[in-house]
Amino acid sequence: MVGKEQESEIMVGKEQARAKVTHSIVFVTGEASPYAKSGGLGDVCGSLPVALAARGHRVMVVMPRYLNGTSDKNYANAFYTKKHIRIPCFGGDHEVTFFHEYRDSVDWVFVDHPSYHRPGNLYGDKFGAYGDNQFRYTLLCYAACEAPLVLELGGYIYGQNCMFVVNDWHASLVPVLLAAKYRPFGVYKDSRSILVIHNLAHQGVEPASTYPDLGLPPEWYGALEWVFPEWARRHALDKGEAVNFLKGAVVTADRIVTVSKGYSWEVTTAEGGQGLDELLSSRKSVLNGIVNGIDINDWNPATDEHIPYHYSADDLSGKAKCKAALQKELGLPIRPDVPLIGFIGRLDYQKGIDLIKLIMPNLMREDIQFVMLGSGDQELEDWMRSTESNFRDKFRGWVGFSVPVSHRITAGCDILLMPSRFEPCGLNQLYAMQYGTVPVVHATGGLRDTVENFNPFGDNGEQGTGWAFAPLTTENMLWTLRTAISTYREHKSSWEGLMKRGMSKDFTWDHAAEQYEQIFQWAFIDQPYVR
After folding, report:
1. Helix or strand holding residue 62 (H, E)
2. Count of C-beta atoms within a 10 Å radius of residue 275
């Protein structure tokens, strides 16, 4: 009874956020939190479907049932549906089965096949990517097309009038299958598909000789055809011919969405298009960007279980206490007057760690403290350790990753540094602003979209939530950090305004879901893709 009362209260609170037009939505993804996650894709596909369901849509998520060699407790509540289908591809008929769990008003459907049962991570192991990934995700795409037709979830099927939301290359064969194998026979003629690009760098490229394995008609080869430029070929006799899953979806999807507005422009440039820039430019009329949301149940300074003191925009006293607690935990001098700068992320070239390394000697001359959390490149991990030993009272490097520590750093720092070379969306800057930590970022992709440059002389008084600098140079980054440090020290009221404006921003998934509903509306206005 208590559970029902709580559910009733939740529904009352969400009544105002109901969608005007509801759809049957099928998400297809290689991962979704909490079942399987390797990065931001898992966060999006674990949260956005729940937000859309809360707004009144009927939502299904189709993903593999990964088992790391043994039964996985993440799927403990998923039951066997007794539905089997046979998929004609890769030289035979391959049987897959479906498992189902109904959670948070979403139908979580897990595709089961022996190729998903192996030790290692989702896409590879210590030896690299699995050699049969093309086969594994071809099965997923076929199964996702069949699931709305054969699975009776809650008593009835989803049917043919669906909105397919396909995420990255793992699900990119779905729009091609709809156009090549279903619509010509009158099936799914009223459905639509949206491709969501989370990271254009991964495209699912395999040799052209694998095309017959996909089970597609020969005349559809052009949709997936991909030719590497001469400089990228292995030898003089290599023709560079390949099939590209993501390219197939770019061609056949009804709408294309990237995970920020800035990234939707970057993918149409030669620098950010990863070879697909011309094709994406030709589809600019259906290309949009929507910034990801954050889960405020996990990232909320007023309720966060990982931080020692809670606070809000109305009462910031807890943040100073969090800073002192973090300094004590890290063994740094407890000094409230010293700006504490943080970095959280992978230690690799994309995140700009090499530039942080270059400016560190100059930065350590300032009266500041710096903490880094991350793992990755061995050389950079060793550099973090040596820098800590050289600057014991100013620098701490935590090699590895810890969710509780990342929360405490986000809450305890005054400034979060993100000098990423490219960032499709970025989440740490959103978490930072939610916690009143001022971001200093390179103005690229989602970082440029979400961080508004501080302007003390705006039309309506002070404006901005942080600093976004460009171009990405050590001089630029150092100058911007020094500007932020002097603002922290000399202009306390301005700094408090920066914190409060960041904390008042709406980065919830409900806000993102509302924008996706607009994309759904536009997709159904136009006719579906027909060759």
Report:
1. strand 58-64
2. 17
* Residue 153: both structure tokens together: 């979830």
Amino acid (1-letter code) at residue 144:
A
Whether 1 and 7 have beta carbons less than 8 Å apart is answered as no
**pTM of the full predicted structure?**
0.88
d(Cα 357, Cα 344) in Å, to the nearest integer?
Answer: 14
Query: What are the distances in angstroms from CA 15 to CA 2, 12, 23, 133, 471?
Result: 20, 5, 17, 42, 45
Residue 424 identity (one-letter amino acid): P
Question: Cβ of 309: how many Cβ atoms within 10 Å?
Answer: 17
3-class secondary-structure state, position 530: coil
CA atoms within 13 A of residue 422's CA, in its CB half-sphere: 17
417 CB neighbour count, 10 Å cutoff: 28
Estimate to the nearest angstrom the gap between the alpha carbon of 272 and the chain centroid: 17
What's the token pair of residue 270? 């030669």
Per-residue pLDDT of the chain (531 residues; tens, 9 = 90+): 344 434 433 333 444 468 788 899 999 999 998 898 887 898 899 999 999 999 999 999 999 999 876 557 889 899 999 999 999 999 999 999 999 999 999 999 999 999 999 887 889 888 888 999 999 999 999 999 999 999 999 889 999 999 999 999 999 999 999 999 999 999 999 999 999 999 998 999 999 999 999 999 999 999 999 998 888 888 888 888 999 999 999 999 999 999 999 999 999 999 899 999 999 999 999 999 999 999 888 899 999 999 999 999 999 999 999 999 999 999 999 999 999 999 999 898 989 999 999 999 999 999 999 999 998 889 999 999 999 999 999 999 999 888 899 999 999 999 999 999 999 999 999 999 999 999 999 999 999 999 999 999 987 888 999 999 999 999 999 999 999 999 999 999 999 999 999 999 999 999 999 999 999 999 999 899 877
DSSP string computed for 206-219:
EEGGGGGGGT--GG
DSSP code for 466:
B
Matching residue, tokens 């989602």: 446
Instruction: Give the separation between CA 146 and CA 62, rounded to whole angstroms.
Output: 11
How far apart (Å, rounded) are the C-alpha atoms in residues 154 and 379?
53
Amino acid making up residue 145: C
Q: How far apart are CA 103 and CA 94, in angstroms?
A: 29
Q: Is 278 exposed, middle or buried (0-12, 13-18, 19+ CB in 10 A)?
A: exposed
Which residues lie across from 61 on neighbouring strands? 27, 108
